[in-house]
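ARCHIVE CARD
Drawer: 12
Card no.: 0347
Subject: one protein chain, sequence and derived structure
Cross-reference: see card 0346
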Amino acid sequence: MLLPVIMAGGSGSRLWPLSRTHYPKQFLALASQETMLQATVSRLSALPHQSPLFICNEEHRFIVAEQLRQANMAHSGIILEPVGRNTAPAIALAALQATQNGDDPLLLVLAADHVIQDNQAFSDAVTQAVPHAKEGKLVTFGIVPTAPETGYGYIQQGAPVSESAFEVAAFVEKPNLQTAQAYLSTDEYYWNSGMFLFRASRYLAELDAHRPDMLAACRQALAGSQLDLDFIRLNADAFASCPDDSIDYAVMEKTLDAVVVPMDAQWSDVGSWSALWEVNDKDKQGNAIRGDVLMESTTNSYVYSQNKLVATVGVDNLVVVETKDAVLVAHKDKVQDVKGIVGQLKVANRPEHLQHREVYRPWGSHDAIADGERFHVKRLMVKPGQKTATQMHYHRAEHWVVVAGTARVRQGDNTFLVGENESTYIPIGVAHSIENPGKLPLELIEVRSGTYLGEDDIVRIEDYGVGY
């Protein structure tokens, strides 16, 4: 039985403004009704497998757990990386965790941010790879190329080892266009998908042979780990000392047992807005649309509306993306330059590259509605049975109006219920929290007023992981 290892880290900026550092593309529903993380789990359904093991950034832990909960998806644990150290250490952590109790499963290593439209072809390729992994080979999956793509690395096939697998002759860096065209003409090259299958012990043995320093750091990090709810918290100092390297450089290019299995499954890593346009359904004019969109004389475009009506007239080959706090308009041939906009946001110390206007917390979410010189208005949603951290503020008071559900409010030494169409007032300097004791989501409007309304005016008295 396979143990899927789903790598859900990363905070890419190529799909800004939808993808943000605190809410990257793997947590978005871009090609279906499921998020990319959920779709990665769903496509395992035709394969015999254990509940997946997840690896993600510390700051994304509650998003992963909540998306799995929403889809009723089980897991074998969520390993939290305190810092990013690339794929080789991440997979080492998974292999060490998987072998702790004497087991030695086949690890199916997947990225949470890929689109695969032909799930049957995916399952067939994995099934074909299993015998080779059982024999001790380290299998990588090569995507049958459909174009001379310069944004992917390539794998050159060597001698056949079966009807469906080949030795790996070489891993090749991202080529220029002329080189990529030459690759396609030979039928010997595949896109490097970043998906793998091998026995846990074999990966650890290869890593020990080629990067023993990396393996030692991962062992130390996991040995000092702590279990926190669903999360496996590593020893942060030990993991910070781990070298940063990809599995390709650390292991796959060095091992003598690398095998490539071709996969023709309509795969994409959705690395740009043009790639997302390609994998989405289109109308007769070649347009892919999401949300409230009206078009007139518009062709070959991708238009996404999150919050407002978006209308286009007389345009071709554009990407238009509207979110609650930003709008992107880009030519499809220039979408790789979106990273330049993200760079400008970082230099200006603006928050739009970090997070959306609506911010998700373990207890629910809050969404900024309006700002003024001495006021700030938010819409809060508290999930059933959840509670915000108890806190106080020195410069602002807060007014809460419940619009749906019932709130249990702590105000100083008092605790009381506030129902729909009722409100309460939190004076400056008074400890307070909100709890949802009911079975339905609690929604309320919060109005802050005072001389200073910054998020850093907060003293946490009691914290349940991430405060408000």
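Annotation on reverse: The first helix runs from residue 36 to 42. The first strand starts at residue 2 and ends at 7.
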